[in-house]
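Reading a protein record of the kind used here takes little practice once its layout is understood. The reader may check this reading against the record printed directly beneath this paragraph.
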Amino acid sequence: QVPLVESGGGLVQAGGSLRLSCAASALNWYNMGRYTMGWFRQAPGKEREFVAAISCSGGRTDYADSVKGRFTISRDNAKKAAYLQMNSLKPEDAAIYYCAVAARTAPVREGYDYWGQGTQVTVSS
């Protein structure tokens, strides 16, 4: 089990920004370099959907079309953390956002092994 803790969610007006953080404190520095990290979201009544992923080294990223150009995923293996900078937020971005890790080297959209509990993002119009 790899505990993941998300933070940084909250209420923001449309057009605003939020920065989500994911702490993977149970991973040591070596293991951090072996996991792809991803962000997903789930809005009420909808399926959980992929948002963004970053390779174990941080050199490659992948984004859902709906967030491309507005969201940026990053990671700091030394701090055992990943981040999701969300700009130009829209009401349709409102959801619970989850951090996840996958024992892969490249960014992937499925096959994640461990998940956090999620952080709520609310966007007012």
About this structure: The CA atoms of residues 96 and 120 lie 4 Å apart. The longest helix spans residues 29-32. The helical segments are 29-32.
